[in-house]
Each structure stands twice: as C-alpha cells, then as structure tokens.
Amino acid sequence: MSGRNRLIYMPLGGAGEIGMNAYVYGYGPEGKERLILVDLGIAFPDMDSTPGVDVILPDIAWLLQRLDRLEAVFITHGHEDHVGGTGHLFGQIQKPIHARKFTANLARRKLQEKGQDPKNVITAAPFPAMIDAGPFQVGFLPVSHSIPESAALVIDCPAGRIIHSGDFKIDASPIVGEPFDPDLWAEAAKPGVRALVCDSTNVFSKHPGRSEAEVAPNLKPLVAAAKGMFVATTFASNVARLRSLAEAGVASGRSICLMGRAMRRMTEAAVEEGILTDFPKTVSPEEAADIPRESLMLIVTGSQGERRAASAQLSRGKYFGMELKEGDTFLFSSKTIPGNEKEVAHIMNNLSEMGVDVVTADDGLYHVSGHANRPDLETVHKLVNPQVVIPMHGEHRHLREHAKLAESLGRTGLVVPNGTMVDLAGNAPKIVDHVETGRTYVDGSALVGQFDGVVRDRIRMALNGHVVVAVMVDDDDDILEDTWVDIRGLPEVVRGSAPLAEMMEEHLAGQLARIDTRTAGDDEKLEDLIIKGVRKVAQDEIGKRPEVTVLITRLAAE
Amino acid sequence: MSGRNRLIYMPLGGAGEIGMNAYVYGYGPEGKERLILVDLGIAFPDMDSTPGVDVILPDIAWLLQRLDRLEAVFITHGHEDHVGGTGHLFGQIQKPIHARKFTANLARRKLQEKGQDPKNVITAAPFPAMIDAGPFQVGFLPVSHSIPESAALVIDCPAGRIIHSGDFKIDASPIVGEPFDPDLWAEAAKPGVRALVCDSTNVFSKHPGRSEAEVAPNLKPLVAAAKGMFVATTFASNVARLRSLAEAGVASGRSICLMGRAMRRMTEAAVEEGILTDFPKTVSPEEAADIPRESLMLIVTGSQGERRAASAQLSRGKYFGMELKEGDTFLFSSKTIPGNEKEVAHIMNNLSEMGVDVVTADDGLYHVSGHANRPDLETVHKLVNPQVVIPMHGEHRHLREHAKLAESLGRTGLVVPNGTMVDLAGNAPKIVDHVETGRTYVDGSALVGQFDGVVRDRIRMALNGHVVVAVMVDDDDDILEDTWVDIRGLPEVVRGSAPLAEMMEEHLAGQLARIDTRTAGDDEKLEDLIIKGVRKVAQDEIGKRPEVTVLITRLAAE
C-alpha cells in the first residue's frame, strides 16, 4: 500500500464557510506526499462569535508541521478570503508564493506590511504556461470574476490533472480583464480531468449569471438624473465596477473622487500592473472640497457597513471635509453579504435622516454577482467533464447541493469538508483521513486559537457581566474584613435602592465570618464558596448568573 | 393658544425601528391632553448592541410621568412587537387594555405570567362598535395580517378621525380570520379621515402582495413527495400557515406533532377563542416516537434560528426523543428577518451535515409576507383618502420612502420619528415637541436603561478583554508587594513564553515601588497609574487596550 503514490486533496479552510480559503494538494507515497497550498485567505469576525477579534485565519497547524514537504503557495486571485492570510502567515511558511501580476502586486503589499521580503511573491504567466512545484505543474487558467485576473488552477501530477476553479463566473464582457474563454477551458480539459474542485457560492441561484457589462448602462441615467452630490459605494476590488461608476460620473460632467484606503490601494495596483489604463482622472478630497456638489461623484469604501470605512463615516457626519446633505444621492452598487444587514441598514437610516436619497441594487440594476450561478456551474461541469466534482468555497449546505447537482448530471459529486483528506489517485476517490482544523484569531498583535477560551470568556462576560472580588487572608488563615466587590456590565443599583456590589459584600461578609480555617486556607475551596455566594445574590436580586473572578491575597507574617 | 384643543400623536417606539411599537395619541388643551396608548411591544436583543439582554422595551418614561392623563391601552394584534410589553409594563401602567378576543387571550397570559390580574384585559367587539376612552372613541377595524384578528384602529375625537393601520396586508383569502374588507374600510373612511398612520414595513417591495391562500397548494405536493420525516418551521403566530402545513401533512397520511412552547400557546389560544375550529388532530412528542418517520410531520418553532427553539435543538441532535436523519426534509416556511441570517444558516448547515434536505421559501413558494407592499399601500391611501399620511412601523428609511409615496399620490406625507410630537388638530399638521425616547432593557429580572452604561461595559469587555488588579496599601500609604493581576478574555501566554498577567504584575511592581505616598494615598491617582501601566503592557505585548478594574484595599492599623 505504502509504495503507491497518492494524490491527496484536503481543504483547511473554505469548505465549510465562505471565507478563509486554504486548500492542500499532495502527491507521493502516503505520509511523504509533496505538497502545494492553494490560496491563503482570511475570514471576518463578528460580535456573535468572535468579539474583539481583528481577522480570522485558517488553522494551518497540519501544514506547518509538514513544511519540509511544502513546495509552494498558489493564489488564485486578490480577494481577501484568498490572499488575505499571506501577510500574517508568510513568516511561518517561507515558501514561494505564485500569483498573476495583479494578485502578486497585492500579495507583495501584504508581505511588506509585515516586514517580509516581497520578492517571495513570484508573478506567474497565464496558462498554457506551467510552473513546476515538486511533482506538480501548475498553470493559471484565466477566468472572469469580480476582480481582475482571477484564475483557475490547472494542477498536473503523474496521477492526472485537476482543475481548481477558484472563484469564477461566466462573463463574456467583464469590462476589465479577460472574458471567460470556453475554448481555453476546453483546451485545459482536453487531456482528461480527474477532479474539478469547484466554487459553490451561488449554487442556490437558479438563473444564469449576468455580465458586469449590464451594470454600466443602468448607472449612466441614474447619475445623470441626480441633483446633488452623487456617492457610490462598491467592493473596492471590483475594478471593473469602479470604472463603470467613474465613467457614469464623467458622462454627467462630474469630477471623480475616490475615498477609502482600499479604494486607493486597488486602483493603484491595477494601474501599476497595466490593467486599468484608461480610468478617468480623479481629484483628491481636498480638491473635491472646491467643486460644486452637483459636479462631484465620490466612489467610496464600506459597502458592507464597516464602521471605519468611508460610507459609515459619511453617514455619521464630515469625512475628509465632505458632508452629505438633503438632495444628495447614495448608491449601494453592491449586495449585502449575509450577516452585514444591520450595519448596512444603519448607514441607510443615517443617510435617510440627512435627507439623502439611498439607492440599492435590490432590483439587480446596479450590481451583478461575481460567482457562477447553478446553470453556469452546469456549463462548466460539462465543459471540463471531470470524473469527480468536489465542491468548495461554500458552507456545508452549498457543498451538499453542489455535489447533488454533479450527481444529477451523471458525475460523482463528493462533499469534502475542511479537514477531510481524499485520495484521488485510484479509480474512485477515497476519503483517507480526517484532520483537526479550525480557526486562528488575529487579536491585536497576538494569535489566539479558536479553543483557547479567550473568545469564550469575552462572550461570557458580554452575556453575563463580570463580578470581581478581592479577599484577604492573614497568616492565621483568618479572612480580613474588607472584602471588596466590583461589578462590571451589571446594574449597579437594584430596584432603585441597594447597590448590588454592597449587597454582595454584605452577603460574603456574613458567609466568610462563619467559615473554618480549613476552607480559608484552601484557595480553591475559598474561591468556590465566594463564586457561589456572589452568584446567589445576583440570581436573587437581578436574575443573572455573572462571571466571577476572585483575587485572594494571603498576607505573609511580617 | 392654550385654550385650543390639540390632537397629538407621538410614537415612543416603532417609528425608527421595526419592533417595540408604542404610539401615544392625546386630545385636549396643551399639556392637559387626555391620552391613549396604541400597542406596547418589545424588540429583540442582539449580540452586537445588546449582549446579555433578554428583551427590549420602549422607554415609556414620558407616559409614566403622565399616567393620570392616560385613559387606556389598545393592542392592535398579538405579535410580540405589539403586545409583548404588556406583561412587563402593566405593573407600572395599571390601565385597562383593550384588544380583540384572540389578542386579549394572549395579553391575559402575559399579565398572568407577571402576577397581574388578567381581568384588566377587556375583549373588544370589532368596528363599527366603538369604545369610549376619555375624549376618544376607538373602534377595532378588522384587517388581514399574518396572525388572526389583526385590527386597524378607528380613533375619533372632537378634532376628527384618525385611522391607525396596525400591521396589515390586503388579503382576500387569509385562510384563518377575516379577509381584507374594502367596503368596511370605505365605511370607516367615509366621515373623512384626518390622518392615516400607516404600516411601512414593505414600502420597498414593488409587487402587489400575495395571499396566504397561495401557499397551501404548494405545500401539498412538497410534503407528498417527501420520503422520511417532514419537519416544517414557521412563525408560531401564523395560525393560518400552521393549518395549511398540518393539512398538507394529513393529506399525505402523516400524523401532526407540534413542538415548541410558542407553537402550543398560539394554537391553544386560537382554539380557546374559537378561531381555529378544524385544526387536524395532533399527537404529542411521546406518541410521535412510536410513529414511523415517513408517517410523521413536525411543525416546530425557531424559524429565525433562535438558539433554544425547536429548530435549533433538532439541528443539534435529539429533542424530546425526536432525531433527524438522512432522507428527512426540513422546510423553512418563513422568511429570515434581517439580522438573523447567520443563525438560520447555522441550522441549515447542521441539517445539511445530517443529510437532511433543507427547503427554503426563497422562491416564494412556501411563504408570503404579512405586510402590505407598495402597491397595496397605494390602494389603502386611496381607500382611506386621509389629509395626512404618517408612516409608522419602519426604520427611518421606510418612513421616509412611505412619506414620499404619499406625497407622490398628492397627499401630505409626514415623517414622525420616535419622540416627535405632532399636533393634528389644526389645518396643517405641526410638529410641536421633541421628547427623549429610547429603550429599556429587561436583563434577567432587572430593568436597565439604554444609557446606564451596563451594556456599554459588556460590549467593551467583549471587545477588549478585562484585566483585574488587586493592590493593597498599608496604613503608612506604602504599597504591599503582592499586587495581583488576573486577566479574562485575553491570551494568557504571549508569544509562547511569558504569562501576560505576570508581565503586568512585574511592570506594576516596578512602577509602584517608585511612587510617593501622595500618589499611594490617593485612590484616584493610584488607580489611574495602574490602569495606564496595565494598558501599556497590553499594548506592547498583544496590541490591545483592555478594560481594567482596580481594587484597592487599604489596611487599617490594628
């Protein structure tokens, strides 16, 4: 058995959520496979499950333990959920990162921000060019998406060819970047494809996807009809949309001002790499201040309601000297990613209070998705005609639905969630291992494990409040009288009269006066007793069970 | 001026959010208006803004200060955002509560739960019957919605008639309860209507609303085609839907089992009040355990992903002996209310992992909205033909859009957000006052004010972590050496080596060794110094700025 070469596939992130993509491929004898990593993305935290966390990374511990077997990293495109982890994790990985030039530009910036040498990012030419990586040859197969230069990967090894779709849509006129090229894909599929590892995001969307080119004709009349300032927000990485928006502004005689760090970074990278050659001239916010509002268009970050992005700032008041007012128009040229609804609605309501007319893309006029819908997935299954379809880039329900779609088209569809290792070398794919996977939190400058208890404790304090008790014990194991209680995140005064902390102090004083020195002498027993006492008062008085921290100080004999 | 009688309208909740409805009307000389309250609802908390809170109530302080002028409370229908506050607040209000019989049944249960006399809830006959309440006569005008016996209110006083729509849709065949009756509405409008205070929920939905009767024909083939157990979740208060679901089950030879407290409470109330006369016979979960799964249909609570409701429990494993498995079907006969997407998706993914087929209402086949869409609002504006339309039951953006709609149809549209008092007695409506409004949190058994800082502190602990420091000062104002630091919600160990708490203790020890007795003798200065010290270490080591609590114990001379 061990003499046979395996072709393994194992997602460490991205097959169980939409975000933090990280897929491992390996070829070689069991346990000695030479490895490549496809994508290294981040996910975004939320208050419900990850309060205080800055960024979520896939837990790549499995890979870090096998770094000697890792040949290289390949990044399909420049979205944060695919490239966002490179900066955070390159320090530990230290292997060449391959990407097409626009993506490489973004990855280099990320390495630089973390003090790493950007030369570790190598610009790849598109397929049919192939890059050697141990037993693998990898080609970047251009594909349309909502960011320039997205690529599927053609992954060859002695056991056959795999096509890893990356994020994609079928778009014949993507405005910026290459259209989807069925002939090129057919050529890539020609030698026979063992597995298509495929984007599942829009598997529940039943209509064929729409082209980026459909948006621009709708934007022009909208901008032309607007009276005051026109503000548009969209995903900064959607360079095609930025261009359509800016051109609609220029057509209405407006000067274009880009606001928000990501907006500038993306356009800068696109210009540097020669992707964006004819973007309208822009003005700075300072210059914009002198332009009459009806001659101005702002294109801003924050379409997902991010608190510190330009959209949210503008909805709260002045931002870089700009201030919206009655008669202005604000366009969300974007969809709201599930989970961000409240934040986006909050901005819309603020704008409404200012008298700003808010226009959304709910009718489909001002936004199109970047992912292949169900009929488009069918098209690609047929075009690639793989033996096996392995859905990725989706929650479990997306993966399952996509696998069922593959089966309904007469192919094997295999759900391979994060941490599941499948061997594709034999006649039929075979699940060969399960590995612990999870998430790593970037929290300030620290990395925190998902199961370290840090975030769990934060959630508990947020739900239950936190009571702190300081108690002193002298060298005879007698409790000193001044036991202190401090509460945080609980009502200070109960029913308009007694302060809660004082009631707890009183209760503890009574309790501690009665205990024997055996209990007083044992930190654990003492702590237990105090926690119970505090919780009893809290339960009786306010019907809650707070978190409790007890600080016991033992005075040494002098 | 003061001799003239005013007809005032002021929302205390519901005009600025979808939730916690509470609208005040008054008639009389300025400052002496006799008042009525329409609806007294709750809103639901979330982790982002109200962690740990159980229920949100409108802040009715303004009304409580004028209780001697309050005549009565009128509840339009039995949804929690309209009736949910009665139990919590009746103790403070102590005025008669009027409602139609089904709503009254629910309100009585709420009073009873809080130990209040349910006789304070008075069952109202429908319009043209009118109830006297000081200078007001109020009639319950039946209207279709997604719960039985919803009513608009016809509110008469010497200054004219107001129609307060409550929540409504235009449904000619609502399955359970009265169809929308345009003739009755025309009759109510006939004497002339000064103001229509009107539901704004669906003002952005451009197509005419659909009837509840459209759902049942889609349910039958779906249930009939299902192989294993069939589980359906919907809003428990949608009694019509419960009936359609149960009938689809029976038609496929399935026994019906209701699961979840709200499901039982709602059907019980509907049966008690004679609204639900022919609901199929149900079986208990215990009985259901003996029925083959292909002959069973569960109708369960938790369509919004609520953690403790039946849907979530079933998605996690066994619940009352029931357990889902491969081949079962789970239908969400509901829409996901914005903000609940992640919780609902979480359940769907759990079910997907079990191999359960999840069916949603995304196609519109298995759910219809309970609110009037934009064309339906136009219909009602025309039918009622008021002088003024005042949008309510909406976020600011809904209110503004609805007012614009009214203006576009040639009527005055007036945005009156929470806390704004408008006088409707004169020829033109006039804003006469602004009152502080807000939210009151039910937190365990305590009531907490929105600005009390309790929830703010919880959020800060969740975002930043909490460091607790205990320091002792002797009677000479010397710091004792054993300063204790305890951390919660922060990484215990930094960069794999030094424990964070110890690093803080060390830093503080160094700092405190150098201070003079003036600082040591001043609680505030000492606390300040310690907080700064702790934050410096945290910033340097983990890049965070934690919350800090300092407990200073001063030892008295013995």
TrEMBL record, chains A, B:
What is a GO molecular function of this protein? metal ion binding
Instruction: Tell me what this protein is called.
Output: Ribonuclease J
Q: Which chain regions cross the lipid bilayer?
A: none
Occurrences of domain Metallo-beta-lactamase (ranges): 19-219
Coiled coil: which residue ranges?
none
Source domain of life is Bacteria
Classification via InterPro entries:
Metallo-B-lactamas (IPR001279), RibonucZ/Hydroxyglut_hydro (IPR036866), RMMBL (IPR011108), RNase_J_2 (IPR042173), RNase_J_b_CASP (IPR055132), RNase_J_C (IPR041636)
Organism phylogeny: Bacteria, Pseudomonadati, Pseudomonadota, Alphaproteobacteria, Rhodobacterales
Keywords for this protein: Exonuclease, Hydrolase, Metal-binding, Nuclease, RNA-binding, Zinc
- Carries keyword Metal-binding? yes
